[in-house]
Amino acid sequence: MSGLFLRTLRDDPADADVDSAKLLARAGYVRKVAPGIFSWLPLGIKVLNKVETVIREEMEKIGAQEVYFPAMMPREPYEATRRWDEYGENIFRFKDRHGADYLLAPTHEEMFTLMVKDMYSSYKDLPVTIYQIQDKYRDEFRPRAGLVRGRQFVMKDAYSFTADKEGLVKAYEEERAAYRRIFDRLGVKYVVVHAVSGPMGGFESEEFLAPLAIGEDTFALAPSGKAWNVEALTTPETEDIDYSNVPACAEIPTPGTATIESLIAYLNENCPREDGRAWEACDTLKNFVIAVKHPADDEHDGKPWREIAVIAVPGDRQVDMKRLEAAFSPAEIEEASDEDFKKHPELVRGFIGFSKVGPQREAAGLEGTVRYLADAHVANGSQWVTGADNANSHVMNAVYGRDFKCDGTVEAVQVRTGDLSPDGSGPLSFERGVEIGQVFQLGLKYSNALGLNVLDQNGKSVPVWMGSYGIGVTRVLACIAEFHHDDKGLAWPAAVAPAQVHILAAGKESAAFEAAEKLVSELEERGIEVIFDDRAKVSPGVKFKDAELLGVPLIVVAGRDTAQNGTVEIRNRDGSQSEAVEVSAAADRICSRAQELK
Ligand code: ATP
Ligand code: MG
Description:
The mean pLDDT is 94. It is elongated, with a radius of gyration of 30 Å. The strands form 7 sheets. Strands 3, 7, 8, 9, 10, 11, 12, 21 and 24 form a 9-stranded mixed β-sheet that branches. Strands 13, 14, 15, 16, 17, 18, 19 and 20 form an 8-stranded mixed β-sheet that branches. Strands 28-27-29-30-31 form a 5-stranded mixed β-sheet, sandwiched between helices. The protein is α+β, with helices and mostly antiparallel strands and 598 residues long. Helices cover 27% and strands 29% of the residues. It binds adenosine-5'-triphosphate and magnesium ion. Adenosine-5'-triphosphate (ATP) binds next to strand 8, strand 21, strand 24 and helix 11.
């Protein structure tokens, strides 16, 4: 340590917002350069290399072959898959000196597809899985939590190419199993979460989430143990409701009731229910207006286009923009603007109903279409109070399926604890997590867009089935630190620690230094990685603190006892075990304890 390029910090960096960011900076593993951009110092590199080694070993085990592609990419392939636009502001784009467009790759599906296209032409060449471990670049809106959301970060990305869907499923399963082994070896907890809601038998995608409160992803957990990403969660199909006793739909004046609260208050005051209970928000149907921003397509002269849509949601639930957006992907959505409303004077804010939208629009004598979609909680036959499309009035007894129809249903609202799980196993609970990996059955999307075909057994040209599989390497490293630390510092699992043992020579006795030095060379000869705190003028207290901050799993102290009794102390970083051992037996003992920790 007297020569190591390292400065530990006593205090947390002012802008570090989570424990891993604070400790990795304080212990001298990384230094922040700009938001989401970090420099790696010698100890950090050691840990990063170990994480990568575990990933490489497991990738090789499933026969994936390592390659290395450039991060700097020309625009054209991303244009062909529309991602040059779809990625929006999330990619770093730039021009070279000749004015040609480039980007810093946020992920590499395009180039891998093109490389396979370039090299392979027959089904006999398949299957193949190739992967790389490489820096990725994303201009994240809000880089946060240190390495968890960076703008330059390390990703392992693998891509499988197979001749048919069965091959894809097999490659996917292998990759998924490798992920389990990787995260187990790295000491990170994880939950496997369904990430797309696609129809049964459609393309599967799952995310590996580290259950951590610092995570930005919320996942839903069913009593069966199955888990879903909130965007992928589907509402179990509603049962039809018998509406034969519901009176005819009727418009009533409801002055000053542009909000759900004011409407409920008005109804309870002026139109008490016959069944004696009070009106509640869940009796009302809100019509929420959004603008859908579609990427360029051929039907719209190759230009991006904007559409207004109205979403009917139960009044006791808030719209969840992320869930709703997932339903419109790759389009983006936002709340309709004043400008949008100006173009649609038939939509009377605060009193929007069903009569001017969707299937009802034509009967109202209106031109053009405004899509009308019902949230999945709106059952056929359900009865509502909703806007009357006239200022200051509402419609009572509006029955879905009798008085109005929609163009379809959509997952639009926030889900909540107690909602029923899609697999019918009972009520859902919600937890936070960090996405550390994702496995994705891409199907034919990229092969079709980029023309990756091979000749099948019959000599027919067919597109290749693809899967993509990512692990956030630097993000995983941060998650390991999140799971393995205490208030004194980091406490690495042996598999990734920068060294197996941290030996510190403390005190003024030269005998302690000499014994420690000898021990270090003995251990190094046996292939044990050692951090040796040989600093001469540093107090024992500071050395102990640094050892605990750096987080190597075994700490060995040579000090007064070494000089007086000829022993060193061997302890676990986590405080679970401590013993005094004769100097002559120390190397053996340390080797066997290091072995136990593996
Ligand atoms: P997120 O939803 O967190 O933005 P993503 O789903 O966009 O992630 P993918 O495209 O699936 O990310 O990338 C594969 C993996 O790369 C992710 O599972 C994650 O572990 C990691 N990753 C993605 N973005 C970042 C980032 N900004 N910093 C660090 N790691 C990241
Ligand atoms: Mg992902």
